Amino acid sequence: MRRVPLSALLLSVVLALPSLAVASPIPAAEIEGGLHPPGSAADLVQDQGAPQPGVPPIPYVIVTSRALRPAFLDLGRERIRHGIRSAVRSLESLQSAYPNALDDPDRIRQFLRDAHGIWGTQYVLLGGDSDVLPPRYVTTPSVLGELRFVCDWYLACLDGTWDADGDGRYGEAPSYGDPGDQPDLVPELYLGRAPVSTPTEARRFVDKTIAYEQRPADAFENTTMMFANVLGGGHRSRRVCRAHAVRNRG
Question: Which of 71, 99, 238, 241 could crosslink 203 through cysteines, CB 3.0-4.6 Å?
Answer without folding.
Answer: 71
